[in-house]
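Why does residue order matter? Because the sequence determines the fold. Keep that principle in mind as you read this record.
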Amino acid sequence: MSGITNTNRIDVVNIGLLLFSCLLAFIIPFELFLFAYGVLGPLHYLTEISWLHDKNYFTTDKRDVILLVVVSLILTIVNLKVYIPIVKELDFGESKAVYTFLNQIIFIAFGSSLFFALIKKRIYKIVGVLIIILMSLVVENFAVIFSVFLPTLIHVFLFTWLFMLYGSLKTKSKMGYLSVVLLAIIPFILFYAFPNKQFVPISEYGRSTYGPFEQLNMEILKLFGVQFHSIDNVKTEVFNSRLGLAIMRFIAFAYTYHYLNWFSKTKVIGWHDIPRSRAIFIVLLWIVSLVLYGIDYSLGFKWLFLLSFMHVMLEFPLNYISFVGIFKALTGSGVKAVSK
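Structure:
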């Protein structure tokens, strides 16, 4: 009975966190995102990677994560040394080639994780990864899905929603189901409620600091048919347009709730149950990250770029296990899997 009560309590807390994140996203979307990414993000990366490590990364062989780590390193180098400077200059011709490369290697990491999570025999894994590598040569048609959206909004919003759905299917919690429905509805509220109302204008600090993240907003705006011709055009659409404001509200909400959801489930998944030496190391790294963000936000962004990508890549095997768990729960076949 105590377990059920604890689950319901956590579900109620999460509903509160959903509403709280939504409210703040309406009021201060840009600054909320910068705060969440710079303060909550580093602690989330560090604690989740620690937790995944203790769970053998939900792979059938811990060595499988070597590929995911290598991909994370490549992503970090390409983004910081090549891709971000290109985007700042709006050199879309050159960025297309970089897009394609990033798209391919993230697709390789994501596709390979299916075999890492569900296949035990190494020879089958090798064959599977080779097939994924060959398939990556033709994923250019999916453009920004893997290179932009999978490590960002798909990870923080869609996968969070699926994890919550699976948790609710396991516990049969009515409040859990309510939180799942609420998470699906809130984006529409953020887009259509108060469309022309900017409650708190973006600060100069927020405008100047948000630069490294503008590409995500740009790609979403392009899905709505917005065209970019100059840096001033980008700034206007991202910071001042009605659609740009709605998109930023959604991004800020998705990231903030993603982090808060993780911290709210400490007792459920036990990511805090680690050796004291590791806990001290995590706290020290977090403090260093906060100091770097405080000195120069772009410095903190570069410092944590690897961790931010790595925690996404290392979670891919768990994503597949949870997908299978949802399918089995919905079909009534039963499964013993882990929800985040």
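The chain has 15 helices and no strands.
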